[in-house]
Write a structure and sequence with these properties.
F1FO ATP Synthase
Length: 113
């Protein structure tokens, strides 16, 4: 419950900073083409940074929880080390794949769009 509340607050703060940085809240008018191009470039890289930062948060928490619970399970039942380790490595690989997808999205935002 605490983690969900913290992530909700972090998401709200990030969204407010994005709105303020993009000029939507102040209804700013673009002065020239150069200002508009730099604003677009800066927002593109800010979006890529947010995609990678927020996208890596879930897998990081998941991998940490997986490691902790696997160590607890090994402490309680050392004979099942092989099965626990196999399942833990498989689950960590799935969680890490989500982080890699976020990296790909961040690279696409930064260089393609």
């Amino acid at each position: 419950m605490k983690i969900a509340r913290r992530s909700l607050v972090a998401t709200a703060i990030t969204g407010a900073l994005f709105v303020l940085a993009s000029g939507v809240a102040g209804a700013q008018q673009a002065v020239g083409a150069a200002d508009n191009e730099s604003t677009v470039a800066s927002m593109k890289f800010l979006a890529a940074a947010l995609a990678m930062g927020l996208g890596a948060l879930g897998p990081a928490l998941g991998i940490g929880m997986l490691g902790g619970k696997a160590m607890e399970a090994l402490g309680r039942n050392p004979e099942a080390a092989g099965a626990i380790q196999t399942n833990m490595i498989l689950a960590v690989a799935f969680a890490e794949a989500i982080g890699i997808y976020c990296l790909v999205v961040a690279i696409l935002i930064g260089f393609v769009f």
